[in-house]
What does this fold into?
Amino acid sequence: MEEIGYHFCDPELLFSALCHSSYANEQQQQGREKVISNERLEFLGDAVIDLIISELLYTHYPEAQEGLMARVKAAAASEEALSEIALEMKLNKYLFLGKGEEQTGGRRRSSILADVLEAVVAALYLDGGYSASKELIEPYMLNLIEDVMKKKRIFDYKTALQELTQARFRELPQYEVVDIKGLPHARQFKVEVKIRGKTLATGEAPSIREAEKKAAQAAWNYFIEESGN
It folds into this structure.
């Protein structure tokens, strides 16, 4: 994988990092050789990425207070941020997915993309140590952290919208599923976000959680455009 720019001493680590559980389960059901999914690597990678982000914040932003560092780290380690980096690295091209997951858009699903980035970082950590894993994502993370620091980008739109509506209306936004389409294995949920009973925006996605995020982002953008910022 040219995108990683690293030669693995143990190629099986990279293979496991790229194997989604749907692929591993499918192989097992078909009686083929056992494949280890990337779930355990995700667990380790999550901790490694947290450490890398914390170190970058501590080193590059010596004036930042703990509270700000914690908020920026949460944004930089969010599913949205990690999935964006995974797409920039084109990790989605190399994912091993089960047929069902492939057919329902798993190759572009943010949760799967974030997980595969965590798994690849863990594989690098195990194969080449902390420096190898840090070298992979440092340039991406530095750019992302800078944007978050300057408030150029928001990754947690639900929290951002909540803070905005609390300040403006002294109320929290309410989310409601208003429509469900598709077959059981390929659901599409439509969610409305409301304040004081008025619909601000809608979002559609394969999961309620994703649909809520999209609705929150659309509502946030509406308020920003309305205020002229």
